[in-house]
Write a structure and sequence with these properties.
alpha+beta
């Protein structure tokens, strides 16, 4: 009768900052207030994957527990959120039988936080990030990422797990239990085996990013440092989910794109999360980590001194 677009909306939430003590490459990250202010930002931002949790109740309303088994959320971040700001998740209602839609998050005043596609597999349309990658132009002369190449793989397979009280390292200086104490959307599925439809606690979708990044230093990427980066785009795709608490998984990584902008150099890395035997693909992440050019000492001098190259070629 009507063609009026309808939406599902969640409540306004105040996500918590968990990365104030994050460190990598021997220095603080952009999530540290002092470092953020040094780089021209008003405060350390909330880590981007945190916002994924606000979509879970809405997408589970559309697609049930299958969302945690075969869901894909593919997000482009638009504006940073600092602790104390409120955020709302919004999902466009798909037509009957349609397993894909657009979603977004915004602040209380309407400022956009992220735009994303959401879909339910196994057959996914092209995600938002797949579309963005297809439109990338070849990068200019790279300095921080000069030695990175599309097709480059991590130095080794990485074994990971996420136990309830496991400290997740310098990149993520907290445990799953600590995250669950402040997560914006709570569920007994995250901690109570008897309540979980799968008979085991599951890892929240936002924490799959933490699992994927936990051992990322083992990839030994040839990236120049010190330099400070941030998540510009993130996709989390479940294939044979959910992922379980305290279950071993194998990680494999590959550089799938390089790009740049006026302020950043970006490396797009696809991370496969497989069963411990490395035989069954359980989930994937696609991360565009954008490094701020001016955070690398002597960037302009290095750019002037660098001869033309074929940076970014396969």
């Amino acid at each position: 009768m009507f063609d009026t677009p309808l939406t599902l909306q969640g409540p306004l939430r105040e996500p918590r900052q968990m990365l104030a003590d994050q460190a990598y490459g021997g220095h603080s990250s952009i999530h540290d207030d002092a470092m953020a202010e040094k780089l021209g930002f008003r405060a350390g931002p909330i880590e981007g994957p945190t916002h994924f949790s606000q979509f879970d109740p809405l997408l589970a309303q559309l697609w049930g527990q299958a969302w945690f088994e075969r869901g894909c959320l593919s997000a482009h971040y638009q504006n940073m959120v600092v602790e104390g700001e409120q955020v709302r998740a919004i999902v466009e209602m798909p037509g009957p039988g349609v397993r894909a839609t657009r979603v977004r998050a915004e602040k209380a005043d309407g400022t956009p936080v992220l735009e994303a596609s959401a879909s339910l597999g196994p057959e996914h349309p092209h995600s938002l990030l797949e579309q963005r990658m297809a439109q990338l132009r070849p990068p200019g002369r790279l300095i921080i990422l000069e030695d990175m190449r599309v097709g480059l793989r991590g130095a080794q397979d990485e074994l990971v797990r996420m136990a309830m009280d496991q400290h997740m390292g310098d990149l993520y200086p907290f445990s799953l239990r600590q995250k669950l104490a402040v997560i914006t959307e709570t569920s007994p599925w995250y901690h109570d085996a008897s309540a979980s439809p799968w008979g085991r606690p599951i890892i929240p979708i936002e924490m799959i990013s933490v699992l994927a990044q936990y051992t990322s230093r083992q990839a030994a990427w040839p990236i120049r440092s010190p330099a400070v980066g941030l998540f510009a785009d993130l996709e989390i795709r479940l294939i044979n989910g959910p992922l379980f608490v305290d279950e071993p998984y194998l990680i494999r990584r590959e550089v799938v794109a390089l790009s740049d902008s006026r302020r950043t150099e970006s490396c797009w890395i696809r991370t496969d999360i497989l069963d411990a035997a490395g035989e069954r693909l359980m989930a994937q992440t696609l991360l565009n980590s954008a490094t701020l050019k001016h955070s690398y000492p002597g960037y302009e001098a290095a750019l002037q001194a660098q001869p033309p190259s074929t940076t970014g070629a396969a």
